[in-house]
Design brief:
Layout: H1 4-16, E1 23-24, H2 26-48, H3 53-59, H4 62-77, E2 83-84, H5 86-108, H6 114-130, E3 135-137, H7 138-144, H8 155-171, E4 175-180, E5 185-189, H9 191-196, H10 198-220, H11 235-248
Parallel strand pairs: 1-2
Antiparallel strand pairs: 3-5, 4-5
Helix pairs in contact: 2-5, 2-10, 3-5, 4-5, 5-10, 6-8, 7-8
């Protein structure tokens, strides 16, 4: 069934009203303020996670886009009322959080510079592993890194890329080669580096967990069965370490 008639009637109705200024009700403003806090935290998270510039630029327009969505919804339903209500604002925010943001992620996820991204991933992975143990093997790193490679990249090429990245960390003093044989290479992780970057690593883990929770919440909107919360690597260990640190103070 076509909505052309309803659309044309809405346009004619809007063109017929006098220009006016619209405001948020106190309840709508309170909801908008909470959305702004969510938005600024997510922008901070994306900077911590070093998201690509194209995605960050698009995210930078989300606040204004959400406000415009609220205005469009209000004009379609109550154009003669000067106050935008809380239900309208909640719907606009829902569209932004659960439709616009996932669409942006899907659109820009392949635009990151892969070589630079892989180097960063290796560094952050070593920091994360170093918080739990003092050594790591090349084969273990390659297994963890499998999702960082495009489909079709051979195991030999993956190992070569990982080895080159680890050679850079050896040169930078992040790790040292303890043992090397035909099967694998064993690295010792510089614990000073891990301690130095502990707070940074925790901020990355927290940002990743918020992103994971947002994606689960987005999917939950369209799924009848309750989805179990998943925890990103290192999140539960971080909570335990923070608890022990607080008890020691």
């Amino acid at each position: 069934m076509s909505c052309q008639g309803a659309y044309e009637a809405t346009i004619r109705r809007l063109r017929a009203i006098d220009p006016q200024t619209y405001h948020l009700t106190p309840e709508a403003f309170a909801v908008w303020y909470e959305f702004q806090k969510w938005y600024y935290q997510r922008k901070k998270d994306e900077r911590v996670l070093k998201s690509d510039n194209a995605f960050m630029e698009a995210m930078g327009k989300l606040e204004g886009t959400t406000a415009r969505l609220a205005l469009v919804l209000h004009l379609c339903e109550r154009p003669n009322e000067s106050m935008v209500g809380v239900e309208t604002m909640e719907r606009a925010i829902e569209i932004a959080k659960y439709m616009v943001v996932p669409a942006l992620r899907y659109t820009f996820i392949h635009l990151t510079d892969r070589a630079d991204s892989f180097e960063r991933w290796i560094q952050e992975h070593i920091i994360a592993v170093g918080s739990e143990r003092s050594t790591v093997t090349l084969s273990a790193i390659r297994r963890s890194a499998r999702r960082q490679f495009d489909e079709g990249v051979s195991a030999i090429q993956q190992e070569t890329d990982v080895r080159l990245a680890m050679d850079n960390l050896v040169a930078g003093g992040w790790v040292a080669v303890l043992e090397e044989n035909k099967k694998t290479t064993l690295y010792a992780i510089n614990q000073t580096i891990c301690n130095l970057y502990r707070d940074y690593r925790w901020s990355v883990i927290e940002a990743k967990q918020r992103r994971e929770d947002d994606m689960r919440e987005s999917v939950q909107k369209w799924t009848p069965q309750k989805l179990e919360r998943k925890f990103v690597t290192g999140y539960l260990q971080m909570l335990k370490a923070k608890e022990q640190s607080n008890q020691g103070e």
